[in-house]
Design a protein that fits this description.
mainly alpha, Vanadium-containing Chloroperoxidase, domain 1
Amino acid sequence: MPLAVVAACITSYEIFDVRAALFCASLGPGTKEIFNFLTRFGISTPYLVATFAGFIYFRFLRRNQLLANAAAFLFLAVAVSGLANDLIKVVVGRSRPGLLLSKGFYGFRPFTVKYIYNSFPSGHANTIGSLCYGVYLVGGRFQYALLIFALAVLASRVVVGAHFPSDVLFGAYLGVVVTGLLADSFEKRGPGIKLRGRKDLAGESLP
């Protein structure tokens, strides 16, 4: 799977990314307005605040270990994958579509923190990938709704001109991988994170 994703990103870089950026730049304001709304769901801050607050509530007020674990897992899934994503951004230094459209530059400037050279991977795609996969692992249902929601946010990053397709592909993949690794760690260390089918959910208390 990792090699397949890398191959897909390289193929997209060579064949599809420029075409996608030029096509999306030609779209009308009505379409852009819709996707500008959708793209806001890829911002990590509200999810981090909500899951952290959920952890505090379930850990210290409800004293429910399973729900506290689930909230902590979702917080870490978004936070850790986001940190990994930001590190790769700086190292890779890929130019954003805006630079292609304004100056015709399409390439890399590694080890820079400038926004215009932080296109790969997409942070919004990383956030929504880790969140949706994490919610599915916790709840064990609504996988198709979560997938459609995630794909809509991923597409929005390309349509609004913030990223190329390969950026969102790798960002989402990184989020899913990090979330999967964290889920395995949580399952091995305690009561786990999976809520579906747990008959003891209401009575699961912290010692």
